[in-house]
Fold:
Amino acid sequence: MKHGGDPAFLHWAKRLQAMAQTGLTYAQDPYDIARYNEMIEIAAEMIAHGAGPGGGIDAERVRAVFAHETGHATPKLDVRAAAFRRGAGGPEVLLVREKSDGRWTLPGGWADPGETPSQAAAREAMEESGYAVRITRVLAVWDKRAHPHPPDIRYVYKICFEAEATHTDGSGGDGKETDGVGFFARDAIPDLSLPRILPGQLQALFDLHEAGPSAPALFD
Structure:
């Protein structure tokens, strides 16, 4: 049984962790605080056990992620810039290659406090590709859990912006997280980093770009 893109055990564990995190935000009684911390420990063990041997997720790694999540539980915000240019055979989109898995994705990442979502997407594009981009509109707002991405232990919303690549500094990005950059036509997309973008999602962004500014954004 799956809930969106999550297997059932992960769905239940994430809900348990979110309830405990929110509970810790408001709890005053030491017994309640102890119980909420125990709930978080149970959620970490559920995820590690459910992943199974060789699943690449151990309880310590999950605890480390959960330790950074404080306050009232809300989804993380992943912003992506779909920067297009006109190629010889039609539109081409800017992609970067992730060092972590050697696969390609739209430049982007977590939005930082103090930035608007579009500012965060433009910053990520410059850092990862070396291209300055001009954000023009929202193309999609997706709940990662509702799409067949590999399971994630966090709740994540993804905002994909349409953008124009205005110029490059020639650096190819800062090299911290990516090691390749290029523009690709829709029929020549390389292997994608599936935790970040799915082939069907990228094709939908091409469709919206070609449909023009009157096309409504996708959501959920």
Notes: The radius of gyration is 19 Å. Helices lie at 8-26, 30-51, 59-67, 117-129, 199-211. The chain has five helices and ten strands.
